Amino acid sequence: MQEGTNDERGSTLRPVESTSGTTLLNSTGSSRKTSMILPVYISHTDKPNNERLVYAILDSQSDTTFILQDTCQSLGLAGTPVKLKLSTMHAENKVIDSTKVQGLMVRGFNNPQKIQLPSAYTRNIMPANRAHIPTPEVAELWPHLRPIAGSILPLQNCEVGLLIGYNCAKALTPRDIIAPNGNGPYGQQTDLGWGIVGVVDTTWEGADCDHVGVSHRIVVRDVTEDLALFNHPRPEPAFFSVRNKVKEIIDPNSLIKMFGLDFSERHAGSKCLSQEDRKFLSVLEERTRLKEGRYEMPLPFRNAMPRLPNNKEMALQRLRPLKGRFKRDQAYHAKYIKCMEDLIDKGHAERVTEEDMVQTNHVWYLPHHGVYHPKKPGKLRVVFDGSARYRSWSLNDLLLQGPDFINSLCGVLCRFRKEPIAFVCDIEQMFLQFRVEACHRNYLRFLWWRNGDVNQEPSTYRMTRHLFGAVSSPGCANFALRKIATEGKSDFGMDVSNFIKRDFYVDDGLKSVSTPEEAVSLIKRSTALCKRNGLVLHKFLSNSKEVLKEIPPEARARGLTNIDIHEDGLPIERTLGI
């Protein structure tokens, strides 16, 4: 087994073996040729921070993009099973089993810009020769290529896990070319990095008979003497291009199954978990505690508590433009102050003591800014930038995102329409209801002026709760909410537990039942369970006046504030932004 290597953030990469249907193509011996096989980080739109380093073949003769099955599994991805009709120079119209994966993204090793890939299909093999991977040593052999030697990564111990076809033109587009000298190789730059293409050692006697004599799409064969043309005394090589075709086969059973996926809902326990997801759950299960009526959880770091550079100066630089905007926009300033004072007054944030200021290694400063809700133009929310970078570090790079246990929106909405009596509610500031372990709070420091007075020097504060802007917060909040539902089952009933587990979409609950009495009972018991664990259910709406009469006015939605429930008709309200 090959050992893993460390990437630039210190996480361990576990390479999987690259194989091929043709053993010669799997060779890792020496070669005198190189091609566009580049190191890239591959990730998925659902978990953009869960990246894996692989080599990608940039193949301008393939109209389809493929991903190695083992690479797909290492990312914890599950696609749609399909059958492909594949035509290559080895076989025509060969039907193979595959999986269709959507939402893949790639970026160059030293390039933060991500490229969205089209639908990719899994293969158990990848036709690659690792000896054809460009290296700095190859560039140094040619004077015209030496300037790019520093831009090419040394050979990495990771798999050739991706083949990008010309259906992703952005990944294959040449951005710069270094022309060859004579028959030598040329350099080509794409958004994924520099590559070297061609014969890199023309003096080698075997340059024309490399043991890998078949490329992905071209067959090279000599014309025999008896076929030589009259005016050509010596035979010349002929090149035959073999068209590659990929067609997805959809049979009636697959079609029915595909339509069924639109309305199916997998339970959280049935979802495939990656190793990082398992680690996330292990950390929270071990260290989540109920203290003083509220759950406390750690920040789920990828590794042990990281030692970070002091980024306070970066936070100060991000604070200066905010100061300027405050002076230009008094209304924005007033709303910002109110948001920050609410955080501090409610105990969601605290001022860092002089004693704690001495600590410098396990510390990170978060910039912050205000955003307006697009459908609530007067409401300002302060967002902490967990993705802010300093010397290539960011807090979100260090945190585990956790599994996606958010309920299916389709399932929640379908159950919401099932019974005649419906109601909706919301968990007030859900992320902020869960405490962060005291030993991790210094990673959530931020700068702010006391009382919002920008003429003073900013003071140092830190969050005591899981915040909006950290990649781990949704997973932590969802984990705690499910834990509350599970542990409250015996005291408050199975229906309450199922309501919280299955009928919430993030922090919005939607439920329908048979009678008003059933709805009132469920609301009261669910509210009591949440209150016992530090959560507040509010913004209740219902299509039943009998239900609304039993809900305290302060717990109803704002649209019902000026409504006489006994006399007036009920207004039409939005839920989940719909």
Task: Please specify the SSE layout and strand pairing.
Layout lengths: L4 E2 L5 E2 L19 E2 L2 E8 L2 E12 L6 E4 H6 L5 E8 L6 E8 L2 E5 L6 E2 L3 E4 L12 H5 L19 E5 L4 H4 L3 E3 L7 E5 L2 E7 L18 E5 L14 E5 L3 E5 L2 H10 L13 H13 L1 E3 L2 E4 L14 H17 L1 H16 L3 E3 L2 H4 L10 E6 L2 E9 L10 H4 L10 H8 L4 E7 L7 E2 L8 E4 L10 E5 L9 H15 L1 H4 L1 H9 L1 E2 L2 E6 L2 H17 L4 E6 L2 H5 L29
Parallel strand pairs: 5-12, 6-11, 20-25
Antiparallel strand pairs: 1-2, 3-15, 4-5, 4-9, 6-12, 7-8, 7-18, 8-11, 9-10, 13-14, 14-15, 16-17, 19-20, 21-27, 22-23, 24-29, 24-30, 26-27, 28-29
Helix pairs in contact: 6-7, 11-13, 13-14
Describe this structure in words.
This protein has 578 residues and is α+β, with helices and mostly antiparallel strands. It has 2 domains: 24-211, Cathepsin D, subunit A, domain 1 (Beta Barrel); 273-560, no CATH class. The radius of gyration is 30 Å and the shape is globular.
Average pLDDT rating: 82
Strand order of the largest sheet: 10-9-4-5-12-6-11-8-7-18
Q: Provide the number of structural domains.
A: 2
Largest sheet: 10 strands, mixed
Q: What is the rounded distance between the termini?
A: 52 Å
Inertia-based shape: globular
How much of the sequence is in beta strands? 25-35%
